[in-house]
Write a structure and sequence with these properties.
124 residues; elongated; Paralemmin; coiled coil; phosphoprotein
Length: 124
Amino acid sequence: EKRKRQTEIENKRRQLEDDRRQLQHLKSKALRERWLLEGAPSSTAEEGEAMKKQMEEDDLKAKELEESIQRLEKELEQLENGISASSTKENVAEETAKEEKLQLTPKVSPSPSSLGLCGGNMET
């Protein structure tokens, strides 16, 4: 039982580090893309939309990774504190249910102007 718990802790730590690395990579990528967009000449509407969509997807992935990291940290803490694996699994199930409910609620996206992605005039 103790060996099984130790293995589970090690696996959670590995997953946590992987998620942190992925999150750091996504944040660096997003920062680089924003920097490139600021210095780039006006591109076509299609390119702008594609880039904006990709940035939104990256932001969503980053948010999901942050939530995963928080969940893994909680699970790891519980395992290290000796809470039984069965109660940990129950807590994970409860957290997953809560996260699913949150994902069902509509999210409000920031407008392009609030992100500084468009100038004062919006031409159509």
